[in-house]
UniProtKB/TrEMBL annotation:
Domain VPS37 C-terminal stretches: 94-182
Record keywords: Endosome, Protein transport, Transport
Domain of life per record: Eukaryota
Name this polypeptide is given: VPS37 C-terminal domain-containing protein
Its job: Component of the ESCRT-I complex, a regulator of vesicular trafficking process. Required for the sorting of endocytic ubiquitinated cargos into multivesicular bodies. May be involved in cell growth and differentiation.
Organism: Darwinula stevensoni
Length: 182
């Protein structure tokens, strides 16, 4: 930040005016007409030397910062590469999670107690219908008694076992509902 004099002008401008004010008119004309002489005067004036020194200091500082930044380039590139790998891993894991969540949702629906109970009910009805159809064939004498009895007993046994499983499942579901676990 520039320092200001009591007149409100920057201190460096005040110093330049004092320096120029100390020159006679011939010297001022010479500086105005001869560019090389003006440059030499400016190089020898402490104000411009301070600016040159400041500029050189800023350039040196910028160079140091640039070199420091470049020294971190390899580390930065490695970290950037690791972040990209981690992001790709995240995307893969997210996709896997979504797929498994969908599969879980489908399986939990398919194997829910209500779904199992519905399948058992359907299986009981199916075996009941098979045994009734089989009994009708026997009544219409399409099947002999020796063939009928073992097959009919087997169909009825399967039907009763399924009905027992269905009733047991319904009882267990009712108990779970009462305890608040389901």
């Amino acid at each position: 930040m520039a320092a200001y004099s009591s007149s409100g002008a920057p201190a460096s401008l005040q110093s330049l005016l004092v320096c120029l004010g100390g020159l006679n008119e011939d010297r001022l004309k010479q500086l105005r007409e001869d560019d090389e002489e003006l440059e030499a005067f400016m190089r020898n004036t402490h104000i411009f030397q301070d600016y040159d020194n400041s500029i050189e200091a800023v350039i040196a500082e910028n160079s140091e910062l640039a070199e420091a930044n470049l020294s971190h380039k390899t580390d930065l590139n490695e970290k950037r590469k690791r972040v990209l790998e981690k992001f790709n891993e995240y995307v893969t894991l997210k996709k896997t999670l979504e797929e498994k969540s969908e599969k879980y949702r489908q399986l939990s629906t398919k194997y829910s107690p209500e779904s199992i109970q519905a399948c058992l009910s359907e299986a009981v009805l199916q075996k009941d219908e098979e045994s009734e159809d089989f009994a009708e064939k026997f009544l219409y004498e399409e099947i002999s008694l020796d063939d009928f009895l073992p097959d009919y007993m087997s169909l009825r046994k399967v039907s009763h076992l399924r009905r027992l499983k269905e009733e047991k499942l319904l009882k267990q579901l009712e108990q779970l509902k009462q305890t608040g676990l389901f």
